[in-house]
Amino acid sequence: MPWGLKRFHQFGQTHVVTFSCYHRRSSFIAASAKRIFENALERVRRSFGLCIYGYVVMPDHVHLLMSEPQRGTLAGALKSLKQGVSRRLIGDAEHFWQKRYYDFNIRSDEQFVEKLGYIHLNPVRRGLCDRLEDWEWSSFMQYATGCEGRVEIECEWMARKRERAAGKLSPARELPRSSQNRA
Fold first, then answer.
1. How far is CA 120 from the centre of its chain?
2. Superfamily grouping for domain 14-170
3. pLDDT tens digits, residue range 75-132?
């Protein structure tokens, strides 16, 4: 870690974490590579007891909005994630990831919403897609529709699912059809 840089971990805060592929190489072009990352993120989420609030896999970097782990340290969780992905994707290259990562502590609801929006808009800003829902490798669709993806996202939809499973919320039910749809 560079001299004078202090990370504030183990205070129960939410973090925005960004890390890049080695020399910003586009290592996540293939859909299979992005899926490998998502599967590894879900594995680390379960192993370390993380809450993932948002993520996006870009061709040359990744953004995560996440809690501190219940087990282990944030640095340990990220090391496990990066090693798991690189072991599967490195091929003949000497390095897969840039060293270290960028970490920003979220201190307010406004910052949380701002950073989540930034994460989800990243593929549109980079010209990789026209609309947020067109980029498959992010948490946006779970927020928008409640459809579960490869990574469990801690959002309103997931909270309702847990409440239903615990019997604290009435079961989901179909809404009556509109009178306009009746023939």
1. 10
2. Transposase IS200-like (3.30.70.1290)
3. 899 999 999 999 888 876 788 999 888 888 998 989 999 999 999 999 999 999 999 9
